[in-house]
Amino acid sequence: MTKRIIRWGVAALQLAELFVSSVVHLLYGFYIFSSAVAGDLSLALNECLFKPNKNAGVKDDLPGGASTNAVNLPPIVLVHGIFGFGKGRLGGLSYFAGAEKKDERVLVPDLGSLTSIYDRARELFYYLKGGRVDYGEEHSNACGHSQYGRVYERGHYPEWDEDHPIHFVGHSAGAQVVRVLQQMLADKAFNGYENTSENWVLSITSLSGAFNGTTRTYLDGMQPEDGRTLKPICLLQLCRVGVMIYDWFDIPWLKGYYNFGFDHFNLSWKKIGVWGLVDCLLGNSGPFASGDWILPDLTIQGSMQLNCHLQTFPNTYYFSYATKRTRKILSVTIPSSILGIHPLLFIRVLQMSQWHHPPDVSPPYKGYRDEDWQDNDGALNTISMTHPRLPIEHPSQFVKNDSDCQPMQPGIWYYKIVEGDHILFIVNRERAGVQFDLIYDSIFERCRKHVFRKSPPTLPNEAHQ
């Protein structure tokens, strides 16, 4: 009888936590969406009352809003993370909180917010080079979606090649997207582009990057046994149902504001009908059935599978900022503050700091220890963000002050630990204050002043030898 009461109590606590988490996420999502709509309405009203400056839009005629003085600069591409969005979504709201305005040559692509890292890497390539997104025949057949996706009539950097490399800055899952893209370039994985190489990427900067997975995925509903399937009742199940219904209704103006990125799965009611929706909700078809979405890639197991094929290349510069909002008191890990953590993430920081891998389930890798994964920022574990380390640790160097790594050497992951939660440096820059400017100023300064590639000119008869 006592054991039954304990089980009921635990179940009641889990349901209460699920309810609170769902309400908090819905309220925050509604806040972001309503802010975007309010911003657009304000802009429309302003244009009605005041005559707009005809010359104000000249700068945006070039891809990425580059001015004519900046066209020769290698672009800095900001890649958003999970539930993120690029330029053109959510009205005038900026995922990177306006950081893109700190440099004249910055691109902010809009990729699938819940699509797999593989699919997002493919989309990023065609966003830059132009053309119709090709997800690959083998992958598309295996995952049950169309081989082709969105068409970019004009690439945002069509001249991109080894002589015109790019700086990438990825937040959260965006950092792993860039690593997968660089490996695809090295593997010449894009049909019609036989000359790609890893040297198309000049530098990768990670901001709270998801390199080695996160225990958050298990708390939200991924099964720790395999890192791919969902628990029957969990936050991610509610997310799955909501996304399926959102994409099924396929309301153009709503998807113009925000799109989860599953258009290539053809989930609209016009194509699959009512029974198609039922089939998706039952888990028999769609991205959640095939596993071709972002969460399986963010488990420790999924990240290890990705990392098995990803290299750190000798001619590319790497820097990462790992965030942390925990501290230890008497060997117990707890949140480091109350006011310094976003309300959306406070409970998550506490949960992750107390996470224990189920004792009846095999650990994700040999040598796994719960205490190594307790420091976190509410979404990712700090150990995961420093540099790729699972299943094989890549070359790395801890940096206390930026000057400690000058001059930078390629092929090494320089990393810095920053006090902050997972969304401190995005969406709302007022929260981060001066720290926001210091971080992004250092990123752009590094790209423009301290990261470069010198190579002797190649004579025509020496090419490809």
Automatic annotation (TrEMBL):
<feature type="domain" description="Lipase-like C-terminal">
    <location>
        <begin position="75"/>
        <end position="187"/>
    </location>
</feature>
<keyword id="KW-0472">Membrane</keyword>
<dbReference type="GO" id="GO:0006629">
    <property type="term" value="P:lipid metabolic process"/>
</dbReference>
<feature type="transmembrane region" description="Helical">
    <location>
        <begin position="12"/>
        <end position="33"/>
    </location>
</feature>
<keyword id="KW-0964">Secreted</keyword>
<dbReference type="Pfam" id="PF24708">
    <property type="entry name" value="Lip_C"/>
</dbReference>
<dbReference type="GO" id="GO:0005576">
    <property type="term" value="C:extracellular region"/>
</dbReference>
<dbReference type="InterPro" id="IPR056304">
    <property type="entry name" value="Lip-like_C"/>
</dbReference>
<keyword id="KW-0443">Lipid metabolism</keyword>
<keyword id="KW-0732">Signal</keyword>
<keyword id="KW-0378">Hydrolase</keyword>
<keyword id="KW-1133">Transmembrane helix</keyword>
<keyword id="KW-0812">Transmembrane</keyword>
<protein>
    <recommendedName>
        <fullName>Lipase-like C-terminal domain-containing protein</fullName>
    </recommendedName>
</protein>
<dbReference type="GO" id="GO:0016787">
    <property type="term" value="F:hydrolase activity"/>
</dbReference>
